[in-house]
Amino acid sequence: MKIAKFACMLVVLGALLTASAAAQAPGIVGKITLPDTTPKNPSLASVHGVLFLAWKGDGNDTLNIEYSADNGHTFGHKFTSEETSPQAPALCAHNGLLYIAWKGDGNDNLNVAQVAFSAGRITGLANQVTLPDTSASSPALASLNGRLFIAWRGDGNDTLNIEYSSDNGQTFGHKFTSGETSPQPLALCAHNGALFIAWKGDGNDNLNVAQLNVTGENIGDLTNKVTLPDTSASSPALASLSGRLFLAWRGDGNDTLNVESSADNGHVFGHKFTLGETSPQSFALSAHTGELFVAWKGDGNDNLNVAKVRD
């Protein structure tokens, strides 16, 4: 009888340990699927404890923004702009404000504007500037040391270009063009007081991450470039959280979501885990209230999804 009870206890203990391990395993938690849809990848940004989501319309090119004030449990307060783009927009928190960037509709000019927010409502886009710089792809935004950086791939070529604004997006300059190239959009991220850029290879699918050398008013060349064995046919995403630089991408030859991180400022990446979610487009990453969030469009549908990443 005692042996039987002991065996039963072992079974129960084993089940509890298995459940505990499953509960702590890397993965997606708190996933919500929105009724909003897009054929492209969305964008995420966190400002003052509010998580913003932006995307281009489905069957149209309108730019849409909505937000969650409850850590991604629910989204609402949708705003649809009169501005349009055939590509995904980019979002960025900068100097306590939210900025959006996009490529023109019917032209390739890059545009940057502030997202006006008042009394819990997104009221419009303010202080829009249209740059002479052009791209056939989506731009990327990042904020570092009071400067708003924008990055894009060349128009009619695949060169990586970066410039910045020191006056909250009113004017941009100090353009730097790298010898690196990519046929896909770029990812940009401020991390541990430095600016990082990620891209997929040109003529190959390997993912690359490098630091941008910003000295004084000048953007220098890329440093500490690392080419990963991981590959993707789409652009990667970057986010910084708790001293770690996170990289996310969709699989190569498949649509799986993959995430890994670097704890040494981009020199080495590891701790890779593949999540059960899939998308034919790129993913969006953002740190928010001390946690990592991911957003993507559905696989086989266009619904937007948002979830926390537990690693």
Write up what this structure looks like.
The chain is mainly beta and 311 residues long. 7% of the residues lie in helices and 60% in strands. The chain has one helix and 24 strands. The chain has one helix spanning 2-24, and strands at residues 27-37, 43-47, 50-56, 62-68, 76-84, 90-94, 97-103, 109-118, 121-134, 140-144, 147-153, 159-165, 173-181, 187-191, 194-200, 206-215, 218-231, 237-241, 244-250, 256-262, 270-278, 284-288, 291-297, 303-310. It is globular, with a radius of gyration of 20 Å.
Features:
mainly beta, four-stranded antiparallel beta sheet, 311 residues, 24 strands, globular, 7% helix
Secondary-structure topology with pairs:
Layout lengths: L1 H23 L2 E11 L5 E5 L2 E7 L5 E7 L7 E9 L5 E5 L2 E7 L5 E10 L2 E14 L5 E5 L2 E7 L5 E7 L7 E9 L5 E5 L2 E7 L5 E10 L2 E14 L5 E5 L2 E7 L5 E7 L7 E9 L5 E5 L2 E7 L5 E8 L1
Antiparallel strand pairs: 1-24, 2-3, 3-4, 4-5, 6-7, 7-8, 8-9, 10-11, 11-12, 12-13, 14-15, 15-16, 16-17, 18-19, 19-20, 20-21, 22-23, 23-24
